[in-house]
Amino acid sequence: LRLPCWWALHSTREFLAANMNLPHVLTRLEQENQLSPDEVRSVQAEQTPVSRGSRLVEMLMDRRRQEPYDWLVRVLREEGQDFLVQEMEDRERDRERRYGIGEQQAAKPGKQMAQMDHSAQQAQVH
Asked: What is the pLDDT of residues 64-115, one digit of tens each?
């Protein structure tokens, strides 16, 4: 899980927990094999809607993999909860700015090199 994404989950977990359509999110994440049936039951066993949402976000943070985070973003968008995704993306960008070079560039050196090669080729042509 990229650090800015982990930070987005961490810093928005209460906001997410209080506002997401949790039943739909749980169903979709289970359908996409991002949560096991036992994990879904664990979330559902929590006392309140907010504690259930918090439990889900904690599970995703603990995984430290990008795929569950990406599925959460996809499901929230499908559910029409773009305001939650926007808040998460704002936190990601803040974290990337705080630490200088964006982690997306650092995580994809091949793409960055291809862009530099293309720029060098363009400079030679002109």
From this structure: 889 999 999 999 999 999 999 999 999 999 988 888 755 455 454 444 434 4
User: Which residues have a Cβ under 8 Å from the Cβ of 37 and sit 6 or more positions away?
Assistant: 30
Residue 96 φ/ψ region, left for φ over 0, alpha for ψ in the -120 to 50 degree band, beta for the rest: alpha
> What pTM did the predictor assign?
0.73
**Cβ partners under 8 Å of residue 8, min gap 6:** 88, 89, 91, 92, 95
CA–CA–CA angle 35, 39, 25 (5° rounding)? 50
CA neighbours closer than 13 Å in the CB half-sphere of residue 8: 23
Residues in the chain: 126
